[in-house]
Amino acid sequence: MSLTNMPPADSSNSVAQPAIVQASSSSAVANTTLTNAQNTSEVSVGGDSPQAPKRNLLGMEIDALTMEGAVDRLWNWIHDSQETQGCRYVVTPNVDHAVLLQENEDLQAAYRDAHLVLADGHPVVLASKLLKQPVPERVAGSELVPSLFDAFNLHGALKVFLLGAAEGVAEVAAKNMLQKWPNVQTIGVYSPPMGFEKDKVECANILARIAACKPDVVVVGLGAPKQELWVHRYHQLIDAKVALCVGATIDFLAGEKKRAPYWMQRTGLEWAHRMFSEPKRLVKRYAKDAWVFPQLVARQWIADARISVVQEQKELMIQKDQKLQEDGVR
User: Fold this and answer.
1) Alpha carbon distances (Å) from 127 to 83, 95, 120, 130, 247
2) Taking the CB of residue 132, how many other CB atoms lie within 10 A of it?
3) pLDDT tens digits, 289-327
4) For residue 316, what are the CA distances in angstroms to 302, 310, 324?
């Protein structure tokens, strides 16, 4: 694939023109499947009902969806012909997100308004079962994105904008994606400068780049909680069907970072692989999470138990009153 950058915009403008990374248009398959996708918008690629229940867990309302169900939900959103206000966005909370959420009101608002909240992390799934708010399985952002690409590569075409990662990484990810998923077209990439979220002009520049491409999906890899806060702030202005807040996924797609071995992913030890891969950045964070997260689970367990006792007492009082009324009638 050849990637061509358009010339940078005149810096005198308050909103820069987008530098779009175009996938090669020589593939007839992509054009054919784009037409097919328009004719197969009713195809269900997942196994769960779109009306899956939400679970009240650690201050979050988590959607109880499997990976197939999550992909099915995104598929329906992307093929939704109805006009919606703004861009639907997805967050994937793990242990660290749950800890950060407790003291960050802006992050709480971002999670409260998210259109889809998926449990990323085995500890979160285990906590959900312990607290009798079960979610069926872990749906990690780094696995959700490839699963979504798999679905569209087989059944249609998808236009993607990669936002985040270090300079040049997204371009490598785009090349790898075209090789693995030829019907997934990376139509734009951008790596924002440090501190961009505090610069209104730069934020407008990002929105303009996305709007110029009109992607179906924006893969947002800006790191938590920055990505969730930024997308929440601007989701009504993002000109795309869906925004996925998925951390290091662009780095994984580019091969810049390596996923843990499969057995570690399945046994809940991926955190250890990541920690030893980036000890300076993650050891302190994971130590704090390991101390705080069990306390959060215990706190909710106690609170839920108290609520359950109160409810049982109310039910007993109602039954007692009903019995007294029945005895009085007799």
Assistant:
1) 37, 10, 12, 5, 22
2) 10
3) 788 999 999 999 999 889 888 887 888 888 777 877 776
4) 21, 10, 12
Dihedral sign from CA coordinates of 126, 132, 137, 142 = negative
In the block, which residue shows the tokens 């650690």? 58
**What residues are paired with 219 via a beta bridge?**
162, 244
Q: What pLDDT is stored for residue 44 in this prediction?
A: 52
* Spatial separation of the C-alpha atoms in residues 168 and 146, rounded to whole Å: 20
Least confident range of 34-38, 76-80, 166-170, 213-217 = 34-38
Integer Rg of the chain from CA: 23
Q: In the predicted model, is pLDDT for residue 27 greater than 60?
A: no
Q: Is the separation of the CB atoms in 263 and 238 below 8 Å?
A: no
Strand partners, 91: 117
Task: Identify the CA nearest to 84 among candidates 244, 236, 243, 245.
Answer: 236
Distance CA 196, CA 313 (A): 54
Tell which residue, 189, 185, 188, 205, has the closest CA to residue 197. Answer: 205
pTM: 0.78
88 strand-pairing partners: 242
Rounded CA separation 106/3 (Å): 37
Domains in the chain: ranges and CATH = 28-277 (3.40.50.2300)
